[in-house]
Amino acid sequence: MSTxxxxxxxxxxxxxxxxxxxxxxxIMQEDYGMYVWPCSIILAEYVWQQRLxxxxxxxxxxxxxxxxxxxxxxxxxxxxxxxxxxxKTEVLENIEKxxxxxxxxxxxxxxxxxxxxxxxxxxxxxxxxxxxxxxxNTDFDDLFATVTFLLQNTPGSVFITTYHxxxxxxxxxxxxxxxxxxxxxxxxxxxxxxxxxxxSLQGNIQLVEIMLNHTTN
Length: 217
Ligand SMILES: C[S@@+](CC[C@H](N)C(=O)[O-])C[C@H]1O[C@@H](n2cnc3c(N)ncnc32)[C@H](O)[C@@H]1O
Description:
28% of the residues lie in helices and 27% in strands. By secondary structure, the protein is α/β, with parallel strands linked by helices. The strands form two sheets. Strands 5-4-3-6-7-9-8 form a seven-stranded mixed sheet, sandwiched between helices. Strands 1-2 form a two-stranded antiparallel ribbon. The model has no long low-confidence stretch (mean pLDDT 93).
């Protein structure tokens, strides 16, 4: 059964005091990519609060699922490419419907982590977004391979991701060292959330900004 959830962004992100909202089509009991995960709500709020960084910037969202962070970036004037696994046509089709529903013109692309398909080589995002993409240990290296490639493809670019910190930050630290990356910012996902939104979320969610280790910015 599909439902539409409405997500407000504004001073207090309240219904009666908002700048805009995004409607998301969710299909419960379907694939992971068919509903909005808490990490997505937190990353979307961060994008909103960091809005000066997004105007006119090229953004790629990885494992976008229902794409809330990428859609907020598009609303703020970024040129956004929303991606999810090329093997998940139902997720990609749902992204298209959500873009149409919100009248947002984003490119939608099938992109499986760790797979070297032609469109990947033409991507030059200044900001890469990923909400709850670090959840399956066996996929971490594939994800980091794609992220590292994209960071190398655009000097000065950054990967901003939110994840459930289930076993400490050690695994992420290990992966960053392994892939020649560094953390430029690490914050508690709840530290910047408006109370109205935080109240409905649970977990230990971290937000991290990751760059190539040898860049100076
Ligand atoms: C937990 S869901 C998060 C979805 C969305 N970002 C959110 O937070 O609401 C993980 C997403 O990653 C996508 N995904 C999983 N494995 C993938 C892979 N190997 N390549 C690309 N996308 C993948 C799934 O289809 C799904 O949309």
